[in-house]
Design a protein that fits this description.
heterodimer; A: alpha+beta; 3 domains; 6-stranded antiparallel sheet; 4-stranded antiparallel sheet; 39% helix; 20% strand; B: mainly beta; Lipocalin; Thrombin, subunit H; 33 strands
């Protein structure tokens, strides 16, 4: 009996001790904000209580961002910045070392650490700059970006100074560290064009390059988006079905050499309109883990993972980019299945020709997760030789 | 008695000179502020009062609340960082800034930006909406009052080109159009809590227009424009009051003038509200008048529109009869505004600010200034002052 009560008593004591801190209750209140405005009124009161505190609240509130919802993190962030700005303007003592320690502790929430880095840079700009190289393998993409920027600048300078060997090493380190598209593009351009290096971008990003495609099915009047065609019910790669206008369709293998993993339905099927296509692939995971499927698509689309519909979106031709949509998934060890439905509509303008998507598997920081049986990225076809003119 | 006299004498001094410009295109969301009887008058290096750097791009206009100028911006490689900035109207000094992480999608066409909508105010609070569908309320001191992540609540409500419709406060309701090809809706939000007072399905079609306010018998009716036409609503409840069919543009917005609405529809179509329960009556339609991106403007007895070639047309408000045309230095993404003195102010995408004096037989550009920065927004007017934001700066022009 005594043994069972002991943990309870300790827990109570700890709880009381924690609750004694003036920021504890407001933080808890703010973390309760929910959908459709739920908890806003109480959160505003809690926010006032937090911002009435002194700089001793900064690190505890930064810490509380771990596990908080995106909305709650914003409430906490503005409270931190409000107090910090006020105290900085008043030239009050700020807990610089504690904030620095927070930045360096990778267990904390990534955005909170980036915010803490910005605060620390205002307190100790010179010392904060010395932290940047250590961010090259940081789990916070926003901190990692700082290190990549520095490496990229160094690699460029080495190139301009004519030291190709050093530049190659620096730019390779930058590419290893880079997770954001603009930086990856800038580094790759230098590696390829200035240093004649091969860069396997699909592998770096984790794009899936090998698929099976089937189509076209009918999307007249955009009704195909909601219509259930056979691939949504069962995957049988040796099966055939009636497609649009009753014409038979069957699965075919497809591999894309595109740097950004674009799967282009127009290649096997031609520039069709008012059609639906499906793409299927399997992803073999080394272990069970959290991951993200990141999709770019300017057609209406749906994605299924291990037979479960993740999300669908019926927007056409408003734009496409890498990582346009992030869909959280739990990889299971061994085989995982991915099915993509891409719908083309009736528009005829030049900018509506695309019937394609790009999909990669990565972690929350954007680091590629590769299938254990990943096939080599297909080689790009050599540019077609110009046929000699008769007079030549 | 002596105290009373002293108090009375001080009242005019204590009351702020409020010529607030509280939302996109100012009064009624229509661009015309008749109460500002004397506008800045001239745009030139001599009337440039100050300029301050902004931390990010934005297409939203500045708004004016008392002696504070509020503007929003977005920054970061993927525009994830949202800013609400408050400056002193007097000298442009920063008063406060609040930053947020976007909770919705931040993708947009490279020309536009996540901070495309203009914030709104009721004179006590600021309501900032972004293309990411983050809707944030702070008070005039920057204290956070509430926040909504509308894409968290309604996951398919977004436009990959970017959203741009600006919200507006009508009575005790904030009205916003979150209209797009997928999960398309309009909603009225409680000013104090941010919860939905009403939410209405809207046409599944991308729409960048902003609400305007009609006044009929002392009541305000909010007009929502879309590819379907116009829907008139009671702002507090979202109840339908009237519809105007026939479609309308999804880029330039209508202009309200009392109980008349000037709609970019089949050229320009004008309707007048009838008695309660009656549908609006068509006043006139001119199919050859084609507004471009800039919204319509009604000032005094004149209607103004700018086509995609940068030609400003002035027409009679009651008939649409064209009075004159003048070619401006375009192209324009922002819209013209005017005060009580009738002068028009507009800035081109290349950052050329132009004043058009319409008082003669033909409108003339009476002054212009080149700011050398991209400007895609609409200016805000105050008494003898004008505020505009470019990609990099907030600018104030002040008349003498």
């Amino acid at each position: 009996m005594k043994r069972s009560l002991l943990p309870f008593s300790l827990s109570l004591l700890l709880s009381l001790a924690v609750q004694a801190e003036p920021w504890t209750a407001p933080i808890e209140q703010i973390r309760k904000v929910g959908p459709e405005g739920a908890g806003n009124t109480e959160a505003a009161q809690a926010w006032s209580a937090l911002t009435a505190l002194g700089p001793e609240m900064l690190v505890p509130v930064l810490t509380a961002m771990e596990g908080a919802s995106p909305l709650a993190r914003n409430w906490l962030r503005t409270a931190v910045e409000t107090v910090f700005d006020r105290e900085l303007a008043a030239k009050a003592p700020l807990p610089g070392e504690a904030i620095k320690s927070f930045v360096l502790d990778r267990a904390h929430e990534p955005n909170a650490r980036r915010l803490a880095f910005e605060l620390y840079a205002k307190i100790a700009p010179d010392d904060s700059a010395t932290l940047i190289p250590g961010f090259a393998d940081d789990p916070s993409p926003a901190l990692r970006r700082e290190a990549v920027s520095k490496l990229l600048a160094e690699g460029k300078a080495q190139l301009e100074a004519g030291d190709q060997e050093k530049s190659l090493a620096t730019l390779n380190a930058a590419l290893d560290a880079a997770r954001e598209v603009d930086q990856i593009d800038a580094i790759t351009k230098l590696l390829r064009e200035k240093l004649a290096q091969k860069v396997d971008l699909p592998k770096h990003f984790g794009f899936l390059s090998h698929w099976h495609l089937i189509g076209p099915f009918d999307n007249t009047g955009r009704e195909g988006f909601a219509r259930v065609y056979p691939p949504e019910e069962t995957i049988a790669l040796d099966a055939g079905y009636p497609g649009k206008d009753g014409k038979p369709v069957k699965w075919q293998a497809y591999a894309t050499p595109d740097d950004y993993g674009k799967v282009d339905f127009n290649q096997p099927y031609g520039p069709l309109k008012q059609v639906v296509g499906y793409a299927y692939t399997e992803f073999h995971a080394a272990e069970a883990r959290d991951a993200q499927i990141r999709l770019g698509c300017k057609n209406a689309w749906k994605v299924w993972f291990n037979g479960e519909l993740l999300f669908g979106r019926d927007e056409y031709h408003r734009g496409q980019r890498i990582d346009q949509y992030s869909l959280p998934v739990k990889l299971q060890p061994g085989k995982n299945t991915i099915l993509v439905k891409a719908c083309q509509n009736e528009q005829e303008q030049d900018w509506t020709a695309q019937w394609e998507f790009q999909l990669r598997v990565c972690d929350a920081t954007g680091t590629a997760i590769l299938s254990t049986d990943r096939q080599p990225t297909p080689e790009k076809a050599a540019p077609a030789r110009r046929r000699p003119a008769k007079s030549e | 008695m002596r105290t009373l006299l002293l108090t009375l004498a001080l009242i005019p001094l204590a009351l702020p000179a409020r010529a607030d410009w509280l939302n996109f295109r100012g009064p009624n969301g229509s661009g015309h502020a008749p109460d500002i009887t004397t506008t800045v008058g001239e745009l030139s290096d001599q009337t440039l009062a100050w300029q301050v750097a902004l931390p990010g791009r934005g297409l939203g206009s500045p708004i004016i609340v008392g002696d504070k100028i509020i503007v929003t911006a977005a920054s970061g490689p993927e525009q994830q960082q949202l800013h609400i900035l408050c400056f002193s109207a007097k000298d442009g000094s920063p008063v406060w800034e609040r930053r947020f992480w976007a909770t919705g999608r931040t993708m947009s066409h490279s020309k536009t930006n996540v901070a495309a909508p203009t914030p709104a105010s009721d004179g006590e609070r600021i309501y900032a909406l972004y293309s990411s569908n983050d809707l944030i309320c702070v008070d005039l001191d920057g204290n956070l009052v509430w926040m909504r992540g509308l894409t968290l609540d309604y996951p398919n409500a977004s436009n990959s080109l970017g959203m741009a419709s600006s919200p507006i406060v009508v009575g005790d309701t904030l009205v916003a159009q979150i209209e797009n090809d997928s999960e398309s809706f309009a909603a009225g939000f409680d000013l104090l809590t941010g919860v939905n007072k009403w939410k209405l399905d809207r046409p599944k079609s991308a729409n960048w227009t902003s609400p305007t306010i009609l006044n009929k018998d002392g009541e305000s009716i909010v007009a929502l424009q879309s590819s379907d036409g116009i829907l008139g609503l009671v702002p507090a409840t979202g109840s339908s009051v009237f519809t105007v069919a026939g479609g309308a543009s999804t880029i330039p917005s209508a202009a309200a003038s009392g109980s008349e609405l000037y709609i970019p529809s089949n050229g320009v179509t004008v309707v007048a509200l009838g008695a309660t329960g009656e549908e609006p009556k068509k006043v006139w339609n001119q199919t050859n008048q084609r507004p471009g991106t800039a919204s319509l403007l009604v000032a005094g007895e004149k209607l103004y529109l700018i086509n995609n070639a940068g030609v400003l047309t002035c027409a009679k408000k009651e008939s649409g009869e064209v009075l004159w045309e003048v070619r401006l230095k375009g192209p324009f993404s922002g819209s013209p505004v005017a005060g009580g003195d009738g002068k028009l102010y507009i800035f081109s995408e290349q950052g050329v600010g132009q004043v058009v004096d319409p008082s003669g037989e033909k409108g003339v550009v009476s002054s212009e200034v080149e700011l050398g920065e991209t400007i895609l927004c609409t200016p805000a007017l105050d008494g003898k002052a004008l505020y505009i934001r470019s990609d990099g700066h907030l600018w104030k022009f002040a008349g003498k």
